[in-house]
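Project standup — Tuesday

K.O.: blocked on the structure for the chain from last sprint. Re-posting the sequence here as requested.
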Amino acid sequence: MNQSTAEIDVNWTGKPRRFVFVLLENFSLLPFAAALECLRIANRMAGKTLYDWRVLGEGGESQTSSAGTVFKLEGDLDELGRDDVIMVCGGIEIQRATTRKLLNWLRREARKGPKVGGLCTGSYALARAGLLDGKKATIHWENHDSFAEEFEDVQLTKRVFAIDGNRITTAGGTSSIDMMLKVLADDHGPDLANAVADQMIYSSIRTDQDTQRLSVPTRIGVRHPKLAQVIQKMEANIEEPISPSILAQEVGMSTRQLERLFRRYLNRSPKRYYMELRLEKARNLLMQTDMSVINVALACGFASPSHFSKCYRAHYATTPYRERGSQGTREPV
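H.V.: unblocked you, prediction finished:
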C-alpha cells in the first residue's frame, strides 16, 4: 500500500459509533453525502470500523432529495440508542418538511441524551422541537434572517458549523466536511482527520470560528476597503437603515465621494444598493416564514406597508401579498 493510502494507527477497540441520518423531504444532497463520506473514508484509513450508520426517514420507504434523486431508506423514525448520533438532513421547503411526527420523535429521542445535529436547514427542525433553546447554532445564510426572527432563544451565529454540548449544527454545503473532520479529530486524533481531508482533496479545513459567506470584496468583485466597510454596515443595519451621509462620515468620506464610489464600482447609488439589500431580506422572510407582511416590512426598515409594497413591486414586479400567495399554503406543524 503506498503512502497516500497507508492506514492511520488508531488505538481503538470499542464498538463502532453509529450515526443516524434522518432525510427530510427535499433534503440537500451535498451536506448529507459529505458527512457520510467522511465516515466511510475514516473507516478505510483506520483499517477498522470506527463508525457505522443508518439512513432513516418518515414512512421508512424512500425520500426524495432537492435534486429529485430518490433514496431508499433503512427504516422509519424508530427508537434509537442513547449512544447514537442523530443528524437531521434538511434542504428546501424546510417548514413543510418539519412535520409533527418528526418533532415528536426528535423530542422523545433527545430526552435520552444523545448528540443531535442538523445539516443545512436541519437546524430549523431542531429549533422547532425546542432542542436549540439557549444553544449556539447555525443555519444556511439564506435562512439566517427568517430563523433569527422565529427563534429568539437560539444563539444564532453565521459560522460554518456550531457545536454546543450535545447539539451540532452546520450551515450546509461543504461545511459538513469541516464539522465531521472536527468530530473525527475529537474521537480519534488529528492525524485521522487530516488523512480523511487529504483523501477528499480538501485542503482548507475550516473551524467553528470561520464564517459562511465570502468576504464582501469577494462577493461583489471589488476590493475597495471603504466600499466593503459601508456594505458591511448596511448588511448589519437592515431593520434601522443608516443614512448615506452618516455611512460616508463613518468611513471618512463625503456623501458625494460615497455616491461616486458606488456608481463607479456597482453602477447604482448607495440608497439603491441599500434598498436592494432590504428587499432581498424581505423576500426571504416572505418565502420562509409566516410573518405578516406588516411585520416583514418593519423588520426590513419600512415605516409603512404601502411604501414597502410599492418598493417591492418596483423591484420584483409583484406585490408582497402575491409573493406570499405564490408559495401556497403550508401544512401546519
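K.O.: great, moving the ticket to review. The chain has two domains: 3-199, 216-326. Confidence is low (pLDDT under 50) at residues 328-333.
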